[in-house]
Amino acid sequence: MNWRATLVLVLVAVALLALVLFVEAPGGEPRIMNVTPYPTTLPAIVTVDSLDVQRISLTRSADDATVVVARDEDGAWQVVEPVSGPADATAMGALLGAVSNLTPTRRFEAGVLEAQAVGLDPAVVVVEMALADGGSERVLLGDDNPQGSACYAQVDGDDAVYLINRGLMMQATDMFDAPPLEPTATPSATETPAG
């Protein structure tokens, strides 16, 4: 090994030693940085058993449009407003899946974001759920984040603002566009007897 390679290795070792000494606080305690090095999992902001949900009301503030679905006495979902009829089980399953375990990707403490600036005052969409035990859950959905990958949300009783997956907003938008009525069967063609 030549002397230049040895000198480079010694300089790298000294630089690494200096880095360790400057990063470590006195007493051997590591310095706390103001950075989260890895994504963390936040707890769900809404957790309900989908079987306990008895009624869901979606209200869009832009035009006061409302979609209401409720369980009948047999437990089947029925569209109540703006039209009435049996609800599509697939659409209801998707909506319940999106809202029953609502887990945020980010949390902003109260006061960090202005509710009006992120579409939460008034909310773009309000989702209200009536539960079997008489309780309720209310979720305010706001604007999309600047990247368009999530939307802002807030729940009753919590002043924090959250970023959540856009799934719930997309479900609500679909229901405003076309209420989740059960599809009607297309009649099959029958032959007309020759006569």
Care to describe what's here?
This protein has 195 residues and is α+β, with helices and mostly antiparallel strands. The protein has a domain at 46-177: Immunoglobulin-like (Sandwich). It has 3 helices and 11 strands. Strands 5-4-3-2-8-9-10-11-7 form a 9-stranded antiparallel beta sheet, covered by helices on one side. Strand 10 (150-155) and strand 11 (161-165) form a beta hairpin. Helix 2 (89-100) packs antiparallel against helix 3 (167-177). It starts with a helix and ends in an 18-residue tail after the last helix.
Write the layout of secondary structure elements.
Layout lengths: L2 H21 L22 E2 L5 E8 L4 E7 L5 E5 L3 E2 L2 H12 E2 L1 E5 L16 E7 L4 E9 L5 E6 L5 E5 L1 H11 L18
Antiparallel strand pairs: 1-6, 2-3, 2-8, 3-4, 4-5, 7-11, 8-9, 9-10, 10-11
Helix pairs in contact: 2-3
Q: Pairing-aware structural class of the strands and helices?
A: alpha+beta
Helix residue percentage: 10-25%
Would you count the extended β strands for me? 11
Radius of gyration: 27 Å
Q: Which percent band covers the strand fraction?
A: 25-35%
Number of helices, counting only DSSP H or I runs of 4 residues or more: 3
Outline the low-pLDDT stretches: 32-36
**What's the average pLDDT?**
86
How can the largest sheet be summarized? 9 strands, antiparallel
- CATH class category name of the domain at 46-177: Mainly Beta
Multimerization state:
single chain
Attribute tags:
single chain, 195 residues, alpha+beta, Immunoglobulin-like, two-stranded antiparallel ribbon, 3 helices, 23% helix
